[in-house]
Design a protein that fits this description.
This protein is mainly α. A two-stranded antiparallel ribbon has the order 1-2. About 80% of the residues lie in helices and about 0% in strands.
């Protein structure tokens, strides 16, 4: 049986939504734009977490999936004039199909080999979009002038947050079902799960399909927010690093943790930009992330949980003292 969903947890989700939706009344448009990027990074990090955090199959090639969704909708809408309402669902479908054709064989291997194969897929995608039909993909320059869904900081903030929130809440609910529990068990001892009679191949395929669909949704909507796409930015190792670190320091296999981690990493990178405008800031944030990860391997999610339990314990102790 999956984990119980309590009224308190649902109330916290509602409180989070209310606070975030009220932000435009209190922060600048510049801050809202930073949060928009945090929302999309959260989608990518949660997508990575549902596959790698849940099953323990660490992927270094997640931009491969994001790229399929982004390029598919960009090509359909920009080159062929397909309405965005149709190009995005088709792009998500292409991500799930294309990703399955490449990644499914890789799910038969484990550990370092799986990570290297996924990294190779990302590099393959990077090369392919530059040399195969550059008239469609834009080659090394990518594409610009792609249709955007909305204009203005506030409308894009509301839309990106509601998209991220819907995905986060759905993945969180899914992770608390029996399927989510079984996926967690795979990361701990796949042989034991297989020995219990469960089909681990089907479970891993399910995790991958959910992860791919989420990555495809994120990639498709992201390109229609930016209005452009460039292979050098999308398939950059720093992008992979940011997604993985966001999930790990937030708290892998929790869904909520990667969301926290994405916001932390986005604002950290943004505030480091004036001091270190170049790629040096990735070294600094990597060191900060490493220190945080060493301090608490289970991430920001566990730190918040420990603080909450500590405050609850003190409150209970004070109440007991008064009763005495």
């Amino acid at each position: 049986m999956g984990a119980l969903v309590t009224k308190r947890q649902l109330a916290l989700w509602l409180l989070f939504a209310v606070v975030m939706l009220a932000l435009p009344q209190f922060v600048s448009n510049g801050t809202l734009r930073i949060i928009i990027f945090a929302n999309f990074l959260a989608i990518f990090a949660m997508s990575w977490d549902f596959l790698s955090g849940k099953t323990g199959y660490i992927s270094f090639g997640h931009p491969f999936l994001i790229g399929i969704g982004a390029y598919a909708t960009a090509i359909l809408s920009y080159r062929f004039g397909v309405p965005i309402a149709a190009s995005i669902p088709l792009a998500v479908l292409a991500t799930m199909i294309g990703g399955t054709l490449f990644f499914l064989p890789a799910l038969r291997i484990k550990g370092t080999y799986f990570a290297l194969v996924t990294l190779a897929f990302m590099e393959l995608m990077y090369q392919l979009v530059q040399v195969i039909r550059p008239d469609l993909t834009g080659g090394t320059r990518g594409m610009s002038g792609i249709k955007t869904l909305l204009s203005g900081a506030q409308p894009n903030f509301y839309f990106s947050f509601l998209l991220m929130f819907s995905i986060a809440f759905s993945l969180w609910l899914l992770s608390r079902t029996r399927l989510g529990t079984a996926l967690d068990a795979i990361s701990m001892n796949e042989e034991a799960v297989s020995g219990s009679g469960l089909n681990t191949t089907k479970l891993k395929l399910f995790a991958f399909m959910v992860s791919a669909a989420t990555a495809g949704i994120g990639g498709a909507f992201y390109v229609h927010y930016l209005g452009s796409i460039a292979p050098r930015a999308l398939f950059d190792i720093n992008f992979v690093f940011t997604i993985i670190v966001s999930a790990l320091i937030g708290g892998a296999s929790t869904i909520i943790g990667p969301m926290f981690g994405a916001f932390f990493m986005t604002f950290l990178l943004e505030y480091l930009r004036p001091v270190l405008p170049g790629s040096e800031r990735y070294l600094v944030y990597g060191l900060i992330a490493l220190v945080l990860y060493v301090y608490q391997p289970k991430g920001i999610h566990r730190i918040i949980e420990d603080l909450r339990k500590g405050m609850g314990g003190r409150g209970k102790g004070a109440a007991d003292g008064k009763a005495a």
